[in-house]
Write a structure and sequence with these properties.
This protein is α+β, with helices and mostly antiparallel strands and about 325 residues long. It has two domains: about 200 residues, no CATH class; about 90 residues, no CATH class. About 50% of the residues lie in helices and about 15% in strands. It is built from seven helices and twelve strands. Strands 5, 6, 9, 10, 11 and 12 form a six-stranded antiparallel beta sheet that branches. The protein has a two-stranded antiparallel ribbon with strand order 1-4. A two-stranded antiparallel ribbon has the order 2-3. β9 and β10 form a beta hairpin. The N terminus is likely disordered. Keywords: Membrane, Transmembrane, Transmembrane helix.
Length: about 325
């Protein structure tokens, strides 16, 4: 008997009524090339990490925190002093993540298409060509991993390079991705069961590198937003601040007016007031932790953020925003 199994079926002869054996037809062997080259399994492994809502929320919180920390640090404020809630950090994250997420989604679509094309070509290719393709991908991934590790160990020398926190994790992520892809293809083509742990570890390096790169982009976004705001503080609410004690704003854009002992109100007799100083030229940057964080109307290198408690020790007025078409 040959290596192929045959299947026979009996049928009745319409003339004699006896059963005759039909012509046997060989089973079609399954196409071994129809097996996926492992990318689907790797993507499923990644999806098992990012699927939980709690993890997604945690990532949004982290990137919102990173961008907010860089944003307020530009104005000399430690974000931890503001007492912002996790929800507020999550609400601040979409702006920082929009560009990285769009790039990652487009890149994932391109890689999926490239994987399908490569899989079809590898099916039609012979074993030597398959081996060469896998070797090229593996060598490229290993080279990038070595380059990324070298940059990581040279932090003391290259840490001041502005693009260091972006280039280093990006190279590590790309190198780990190529190496994991090559290892996955090699396992599928050879039918071996070994090597899965290597693929998993490389995928984890890919995820960590992507996380690090995205965090760097979030930092840059926060810094860029702070610089854009500093160029035009007119978008912030204008504030008139009355205090009991004299402050030292340290900026010429902030003007001081000393209030009289009695604070007259139109139509009413003058009454004594506990507020003695009035400051103009202030903008409300943020409110947090029971404190007001105020900045001058115009940014300057010698400017600083004024912090005052939001209680009876100060009196606050918000000025109307300028309107080129005011109501009649």
């Amino acid at each position: 008997m040959s290596g192929r199994t045959s299947r026979s079926a009996s049928r009745a002869d319409p003339d004699t009524g006896t059963a005759t054996e039909a012509e046997s037809t060989p089973d079609v062997p399954p196409d071994s090339g129809a097996q996926a080259l492992g990318l689907e399994r790797v993507m499923g492994f990644i999806a098992s990490f990012v699927a939980p809502i709690t993890l997604i929320t945690s990532l949004l919180f982290y990137f919102g925190y990173v961008s907010s920390r860089e944003y307020f640090r530009y104005f000399g404020v430690d974000v931890d002093l503001l007492g912002l809630s996790p929800r507020e950090f999550v609400m601040r994250s979409p702006g920082a993540l929009f560009v990285p997420v769009m790039i990652l989604l487009l890149l994932a679509a391109a890689l999926s298409l490239g994987h399908r094309v490569l899989r079809r070509r590898l099916r039609a290719a012979g074993a030597p060509r398959q081996h060469r393709v896998v070797t090229v991908i593996a060598v490229a991934g290993a080279a990038l991993l070595l380059a990324g590790l070298s940059l990581a160990f040279l932090f003391a020398v290259l840490g001041s390079w502005p693009f260091y926190p972006f280039v280093t994790p990006l190279i590590l992520a790309v190198g780990a991705g190529l190496a994991a892809y090559a290892a996955s293809i090699a396992r599928t083509l050879s039918g071996a069961r070994e090597g899965r742990s290597l693929v998993v570890l490389l995928v984890l390096v890919l995820v960590a590198g992507t996380f690090w790169t995205t965090a760097t982009v979030a930092q840059w976004w926060g810094l860029g937003q702070a610089r854009a705001l500093a160029a035009d503080f007119s978008t912030l609410p204008a504030v008139v601040l009355d205090t009991q004690e004299r402050l030292s704003p340290g900026n010429n854009a902030i003007s001081l007016q000393q209030l009289p002992a009695n604070d007259p109100v139109q139509g009413e007799p003058a009454t004594s007031t506990k507020y003695h100083y009035r400051y103009f030229g202030l903008r409300l940057l943020v409110f947090g932790g029971g404190r007001l964080y105020l900045v001058p109307d115009n940014w300057s290198p010698d400017a600083s953020t004024i912090v005052v408690p939001y209680d009876d020790s100060v009196r606050l007025r918000f000025r109307f925003a300028p309107d080129i078409n005011p109501p009649r």
